[in-house]
Write a structure and sequence with these properties.
single chain, 332 residues, mainly alpha, two-stranded antiparallel sheet
């Protein structure tokens, strides 16, 4: 960076008007009109940088100094789409080494890892570099996720890399590692489902369902109140509600958790769905819910579960009452 006026990092910044290499450029001030309603209090450094950026943009100057200018502008405001777009034009026109551009992006990401423009630029660079950059991109997202495990931009970029550039080999293990660290990481559960469905190295959701159900049941036993694992379990069956309703092992895990905690909302909710899908528990299973319960029909059991949920999940009581009203038409 140039020196002159002190910036936030303690360096000193030289105004463009004092740099000999910019002496031939006439800056273009921002035009806010004759009567701006609320003028933004730009710093003098930001204002001058953008005045010179508008000048090179107007003349479409694709040069090394323009590239350096965009770098300074991005460090001042990493959300400026026009600056990022012009930087791409300059990089391409000059045939710059895009591998070096990855390091620039990584530097900007240290304080802007949720900036959409940064991730859009990163994808553009990765597309240009091709499959060779896949390992680097996966490492980059891992670095971001290490400090922000639910960063949507990082997960979205990671999924794009896998589908467009490859790198599936260790992705399932990566998801397992994240879930081992935090079983409540719903983003890792989502990624696991994405891998099971899309990885060309695996056999697909249908063939892996049995092993994934076992994995999920073990996760539920570790954290019964974790909605993510129950949602994942439901997702493994998709629209195949008959197979879900016929699964004795899944019905059993619901009752096991309810035996420990009769107010376990996820287990009550899942059991309600199972009953609606045709699951028929035994009399002994039903007594886990309430020792005074006699033999119940599927409809009676579903009505009972809705009534329990209206009480223990009071914030969604109206929803469960609505579900209860639908039961006579669903369960014959």
């Amino acid at each position: 960076m140039q020196v002159g006026v002190e910036d936030d990092d303690g360096d000193r910044w030289i105004p463009f008007s004092e740099r000999s290499e910019w002496s031939d450029v006439q800056p273009v001030p921002q035009d806010d009109g004759p009567y701006p309603v609320v003028s933004i209090a730009y710093t003098s450094q930001f204002r001058e940088t953008m005045d010179y950026f508008r000048a090179v943009l107007a003349r479409d100057e694709r040069s090394d100094r323009s590239l350096e200018l965009t770098e300074e502008a991005i460090h001042m405001n990493a959300g400026n789409y026009t600056v990022w777009h012009f930087r791409r034009l300059v990089l391409e026109s000059l045939g710059k080494d895009l591998w070096k551009e990855l390091y620039f992006i990584q530097d900007v990401a240290k304080s802007n890892h949720k900036n959409y423009q940064l991730w859009h630029h990163r994808r553009w660079v990765a597309e240009k570099l091709g499959v060779a950059v896949a390992p680097e991109e996966l490492r980059f997202t891992e670095l971001v996720l290490a400090s922000d495990a639910k960063n949507y931009h990082a997960w979205s970029h990671r999924q794009w890399v896998l589908k467009a550039l490859g790198g599936w080999e260790a992705e399932l293990s990566f998801c397992s590692m994240l879930l081992q660290e935090d079983i409540y990481n719903n983003s890792a559960w989502n990624q696991r489902f994405f891998v099971i469905k899309n990885s060309p190295l695996l056999e697909g959701l249908d063939s892996m369902r049995e092993s994934e159900v076992e994995y999920c049941i073990n996760a539920i036993k570790l954290a019964p109140l974790n909605e993510s694992s129950w949602t994942y379990l439901r997702g493994l069956f998709g629209n195949d509600t008959k197979s879900l309703g016929d699964s004795q092992s899944i019905g059993q895990v619901c009752f096991e958790e309810l035996a420990r905690d009769r107010c376990c909302i996820p287990a009550l909710s899942f059991l309600l769905d199972l009953v609606c899908y045709g699951f028929q528990p035994t009399v002994d299973d039903c007594k886990i819910l309430d020792s005074s319960i006699e033999i119940l029909s599927s409809l009676q059991l579903a009505l009972y579960l809705c009534e329990r949920l209206e009480v223990v999940d009071a914030i969604r009581a109206c929803y469960w009452a609505w579900r209860r009203s639908l039961l006579p038409a669903i369960i014959k």
